[in-house]
Amino acid sequence: MKTNQALLQSFKLGDITLKNRLVMAPMTRSRAENSENAPTEMHVAYYTQRAGAGLIITEGSQVSKRAVGYIHTAGIHSKAQVEGWKKVVDAVHKEDGKIFIQLWHVGRMSHPDFHNGKKPLAPSAVNPNSKSFTTKGFKETVEPKAMTLQEIEETQQEFVNATKNAVEAGFDGVEIHSSNGYLFHQFFNKNANVRTDEYGGSIENRVRFFFETLDKVKEVIPENKIGIRLNPSLNDVFGIQATEETIPTFDHIIERLNNYDLAYLHLSEPFTDVSEIDFLETEIAKRYRPKYKGNLMINTGFTQETANAVIEAGDADLVAFGKLYISNPDLAERFAINAPTAEWDEDTFYSQGEKGYTDYPTYQEEKQEA
Ligand SMILES: Cc1cc2nc3c(=O)[nH]c(=O)nc-3n(C[C@H](O)[C@H](O)[C@H](O)COP(=O)(O)O)c2cc1C
User: Fold this and answer.
1) Ligand 1 pocket, residue 52 CB under 6 Å
2) Which tens digits make up the pLDDT trace of 211-235?
3) Catalytic annotation on 182?
């Protein structure tokens, strides 16, 4: 492996400079186990350990109480949460790292247990037939409540407030979580969104909620501090059934995003094998690199070798690593010396406490232990 790896070159992202092109992908870890759902000292330790990444994107953080769908996830709507995040941001900055917060609304991927018995909000009353992880374990999702026009506006305001809170906490930017079957993705999808008003039907109508939100968010933070996450070929996971209109919908969104001077567009390669589905795209970076003019971040299943290759080929500018960053806090440092990477433990992805969270050793610590 070469030492002048593409991944290890610095990168200008808006008005900040990333020290390398490794990004820690956003990952829910369910460690905000307190009545406020605020980040704790454990979060500070976890993110500081990973500050060697050019950019950290935090776990999905709910923009309001109504936006939640999993236990112990951190939010960005209360004062206590802002205070908790401030400590995380300061610690990462001290290590010369950069950090965006992922703004999250799960929509129908939730359960009445989180909402005092009320139905979760969604574009339409269509059950995703999925599971929600509640305090009483996994429960079947329910038929959600179709959002009224007033609820649509209120939800957009929640994203605006969350963005203001993120600015107050000192984040370098925000990533709008518009992928993986959550609220915005539900609006994009023809099966999840069967509305007959201006937010449903045509492609323009199904993307309206997203673009209106983006336009409101950019009133409170510069465009070049906003990242957008999309997962065009998601199918059969998180309640999403792709349709023949799926790829044309994402083509439309991505071409329209060229009108904004965003920090980046964060795309995922397909989460599952979609090669048998002729209307889905198997190569996301290759399809969208020529269409999108701004900074392109790619994710899903990348290794040191394939990540360097995708940048060298010109198909992406940045690569986000998920699971590898769970088990290798010093991933960038390992890549720099071509050290082996450690395996992750799925059992502790969403468990509580430090085990499987802050106790993965660095390569140097691993060697000393051996
Ligand atoms: C434990 C875990 C939690 C995740 N939580 C989120 C999340 O909060 N927001 C999000 O956009 N993606 C989330 N993802 C998806 C990752 O960001 C990433 O897309 C996925 O792990 C694939 O990348 P990888 O192959 O490098 O792991 C999560 C993945 C894992 C493993």
Assistant:
1) no
2) 999 999 999 999 999 999 999 999 9
3) yes
